[in-house]
Design goal:
Layout: E1 12-18, E2 24-29, E3 37-41, E4 58-59, E5 62-69, E6 73-76, E7 79-82, E8 87-91, E9 97-98, E10 109-115, H1 121-124, E11 146-148, H2 154-169, H3 176-194, H4 204-216, H5 223-229, H6 234-245, H7 249-267, H8 272-278, H9 284-295, H10 299-305
Parallel strand pairs: 2-4
Antiparallel strand pairs: 1-2, 3-10, 5-8, 5-10, 6-7, 6-9, 8-11
Helix pairs in contact: 2-3, 4-7
Organism: Nocardioides turkmenicus
Protein name: AraC family transcriptional regulator
GO molecular function: DNA-binding transcription factor activity; sequence-specific DNA binding
Length: 306
């Protein structure tokens, strides 16, 4: 929810695109050898010159924000929320975050944990199209996407976040990747246990798109083919999907293919030529380019280190 220019982190977000209303959308920029996790304390003095006047922005990754000390309002996808002590907020991909005045938040202290779900082994091994329904991400599917951490548990949250920040500042330290993953898991489990029992109803259009991707991703189907099969123009469906999920139709199709590619790399000795064919990624060269762009390393190197 906040950003600090002083935080030393092994991964960062970079500008992906800008919506018609001027809202910048940031994408995850993965660094090799480190889990896709980033944590920063809220810093009212952070550099916001590149953002619109109300600091409005969205992203294509997941953010869990813990409010250690409240103070001031923020906009979360059109909802005005006053930050209160002990609250945890789940900001899903595509949701717009805005603060009309950073000055109003000078008394707040919060932690922002940004991640992609494949940082968790149990989520990395399943289809990304099912992430939204996984129990670990229950708070992201809950009505309001916020919960209150009991006062007795708040010191533990603060300890987890401080430990996570420390591990991320020393990614080459022995066991750092495993520690990062373990702490993120603790945070997600704790937030999921606080989530209301009734989740938000799935978006019917997003569900249709994901079902069609799951059915066809292993073929040579294109994003345009998918859109037309659902009765939409590629441009319109891409715009709608980006607004609702933070990612485009091609992003989700590619993510599903790369998840399957990783499974085959991990569980088989198949050559890249066969893996590219089985995942709809056209040819080994294209597989290598897309894999490196997403994970910061090549398939062969990932297979050796998996």
């Amino acid at each position: 929810m906040g950003r600090s220019s002083d935080a030393a982190t092994p991964a960062r977000s970079v500008l992906r695109t800008v919506r018609a209303d001027g809202t910048p959308i940031y994408r995850w920029d993965q660094r090799p050898g480190v889990p896709p996790v980033r944590v920063v304390p809220f810093d009212p003095d952070c550099d916001t010159e590149h953002l619109p006047p109300d600091n409005r922005h969205a992203h294509d990754f997941w953010v869990l924000a813990y409010v250690e000390r409240g103070g001031g309002p923020v906009g979360l996808d059109g909802r005005q929320v006053t930050l209160r002590d002990g609250e945890v907020h789940a900001v899903a991909p595509g949701e717009v975050v805005a603060a009309e005045s950073i000055a109003e938040l000078t008394h707040a202290r919060a932690w922002s944990v940004a991640f992609t779900p494949d940082a968790i082994p149990s989520l990395a091994s399943i289809s990304p199209l099912t992430w939204a329904h996984h129990p670990l991400l229950a708070l992201f599917a809950a009505d309001g996407r916020q919960a209150l951490v009991p006062e007795a548990e708040r010191p533990r949250w603060q300890s987890w976040l401080a430990e996570l920040a420390d591990e991320l500042q020393h990614p080459d330290r022995l066991g750092a990747p495993e520690a990062i993953t373990a702490i993120l898991t603790n945070l997600l489990v704790a937030s999921a246990r606080l989530a209301p029992s009734a989740p938000i109803a799935p978006d019917p259009l997003v569900s249709r798109v994901f079902d069609e991707i799951e059915r066809t991703y292993a073929t040579k189907v294109t994003a345009g083919d998918l859109a037309r099969s659902l009765g939409y123009t590629p441009g319109h469906l891409t715009t709608v999907l980006r607004q609702r999920t933070g990612r485009t139709l091609l992003d989700w199709l590619t993510e599903r293919r790369l998840t399957e590619a990783r499974r085959l790399l991990r569980e088989t000795d198949l050559p890249l030529s066969v893996i590219s064919t089985r995942t709809g990624l056209t040819d080994p060269g294209y597989l290598v380019r897309r894999f490196k762009a997403r994970y910061g390393t090549t398939p062969d190197r990932w297979r050796r280190e998996a």
